[in-house]
Amino acid sequence: MTCFQRIVSGIAASSAAAGAMLSPIAAQAAQSTAQTIRSLEQRINAIEGDILAITRDRHHRMTVPVQISGEGPFDFMVDTGAQATVVTPKLSERFAMTPTGTATLVGMSSKAQVTMVDFDGLQFAGRQLDNLRSPLLLERNIGADGILGLDSLQGLRVMIDFRDRTMTVGDAFEDDSSDGFEIVVRARRKLGQMIITHAEVDGVKTAIIIDTGAQGSVGNMALQRRMRGRTSGQTIATDVNGVTTSSDLFTARQVMISGLALSRVPVSFADGPAFAALGLDKRPALILGMQSLRSFDRVAIDFASRQILFDLPVGTRKRTRGRRPIAAGSQRGNL
Fold first, then answer.
1. End-to-end CA gap in the chain
2. What does the radius of gyration of the chain's CA atoms come to, in whole angstroms?
3. Which residues are CB-contacts of 281 (< 8 A; sequence separation ≥ 6)?
């Protein structure tokens, strides 16, 4: 859209310049053409503005409001795949956060040395966190003012409601409370991550990580070697370090989680350091991203009880028994 707008603007400028050298009739024709082009530009601008408004709204719903030292709110993305809470240099400068050296940050596709800062007074979901040590990442690489990572989410419940297109963070529920969710899956914890160990991808036993910070689903090379499928295209992704990679895109016929079957799940593969950091580089593993999670009505990650809860769409409940297939390629509920 933007490229097309630039081309149209160039034509309008050339026509106006040429009009001064043409006969009156030709000048009138050029003026009419320029007016038509300007009208087209206005329509393009209006459409582009609507798209930008939708994008901003979707981004806002993907974040939760936080305050720092009583100021804000700031939009922080909730990332159940990130170990540490992250802030941007803009916030670090605003609150004079204390630099504490550097550390290696492991992204999906890369490792990078990043500056670390200490700060107090992170407030959200009725709690305040102090003594946080956070990496600095550029806003353009994370798409928000910061990231709420696993160090801030322990003891809480992250709930994504695709019906209302909202994400919330609040107090965890009691262990015996499913709160209306149809499927409750126990997970084990490693480095703060919630890992589902009893799952299969096309019949291959696979460890699954629910990652609210990932758009698509990514498998490791051990899973790719075990899967049989045809490439359905290519995907390009940029991790939090700003490193862009391209990979083949496959379609898994079925992902099974506790008797629940997700069908036609798009999966890319990466030999990234994120799997190695969790000790999942040698066995099949899959990071299940938001594109596949949108197949559900609701998904909750309860860190206190080590449970992941799924709520199925109403139509799916009525049509199926036992193994409940859901088409994971659906774009319903663009959160």
1. 23
2. 24
3. 220, 221, 222, 275
